[in-house]
Amino acid sequence: EKNKTYPGSKWTDQSFLKVHSRNAEFVRSKTVDLRNGSTVTEFILVGFEQSSSSTQALLFVLFLALYSLAMAMNGLIIFITWTDPRLNSPMYFFLGHLSFLDVCFITTTIPQMLIHLVVKNHIVSFVSCLTQMYLVFCVGVAECILLAFMAYDRYVAICHPLSYAQIMSRQVCVKLVSTAWLFGLINGIFLEYMSFRNPFCRDNHIENFFCEAPIVIALSCGDPQFSLRMIFADAIVVLLSPMVLIVISYARILASILGRASSSGRGKTFSTCASHLTVVIFFYTSAMFSYMNPRSTHGPDKDKPFSLLYTIITPMCNPIIYSFRNKEMKGAMVRALGRTSLA
């Protein structure tokens, strides 16, 4: 009776009960999985949460001073490069846009960190984290490309001085800056998709003071290796391709400088190029460590110093490096501050 076969069917009572039991177990397991894997709607930025209250107060004062200095210096460079007629050259046109990118970059991350050093609530919404990551991607990629265009500008100015005005015309400079911004906007969309393509249902604690892509991807469900590999491949293109252009430009500049007889001319040219090279080394070193290193070599103690380097130290150092090593910039700053004092 228990194993009776129904008319017109191959099913028996016993086989039917076995299948029903398996289906019920599958439904129960899926229900448990869904209950345990609830979708993450917010993240917690650990940042400097584990530091003592006195350390956090000291860090707040330090980072606030650095942020204020970076904003003031970059704002001054933007003002004088866009208003001083004596700085009407492609080099200062690019420098003004570099300072604008630095202002955007530092404002995307540091104010939030300063707030979290004061308040106890370190929660950021999913949308806020997504927006912050996109802005970091967009501005960072645009700055990489702009630094390469600035190296090309120095190459043309030093190696082809007679054709410089024709090659680096105003229209060409505008197109180069627009290309940097456009590539940053488009590439940011791709990187954003790769970072958030998987759902988030694991730990929502981010071991940094802002939403950094490799750390966020590691928190997603499923296998994050594909997204990490794609971001690594993108970093090779975005970081190494401009670096190749920079290396080629400065190799030709160096060959041109060494071929000159005047030692004074060499010194002036070296001084002009050294500023740009210093900025390139600062920015690229920190960015390559963050996005081109295996995650197994990373950790909070290693990630935070390099994140601080390219989010606050480099934007602060850029205007200082350019202004202290450039007599025209010093003169323009003095004139701008003098006009402000008179006003």
From TrEMBL:
This is Olfactory receptor. The lineage of its organism: Eukaryota, Metazoa, Chordata, Craniata, Vertebrata. Putative odorant or sperm cell receptor. The chain crosses the membrane at residues 57-80, 92-114, 134-152, 172-190, 230-253, 274-293, 305-324. Coiled coil: none annotated. It is found in: Cell membrane. Gene3D superfamilies: Rhodopsin 7-helix transmembrane proteins. The keyword Membrane applies. GO terms for molecular function: G protein-coupled receptor activity; olfactory receptor activity. One of its GO terms (cellular component) is plasma membrane. It comes from Canis lupus familiaris (Dog). Its main location: membrane. It comes from the Eukaryota.
